[in-house]
Predict the structure.
Amino acid sequence: MELAIQIRIEELPEGLFLATSDELQGLVAQGRTVAEALEIARDVARKLIDSRRERGSLAPLPTTAERQNYTIVVAA
């Protein structure tokens, strides 16, 4: 099953990018690019989800079948 977790990206004054999520509390990732921040966020999300499943404390998250909104980034 694939989960669809909304991520917010914010550019920091130092030029790095910070990824957080209101849907998955505790998800915080930082990267030199948006793509790197998202890649790290995906790894952090996997670990958080696995940990919370083991403890039985995972709140319901939407699946990719339930959420169809996607954003793509295109260099221009």
Notes: The chain has one domain: 1-76. The helical segments are 34-55. The domain at 1-76 is CATH 3.30.160 (Double Stranded RNA Binding Domain). The chain has a mean pLDDT of 90.
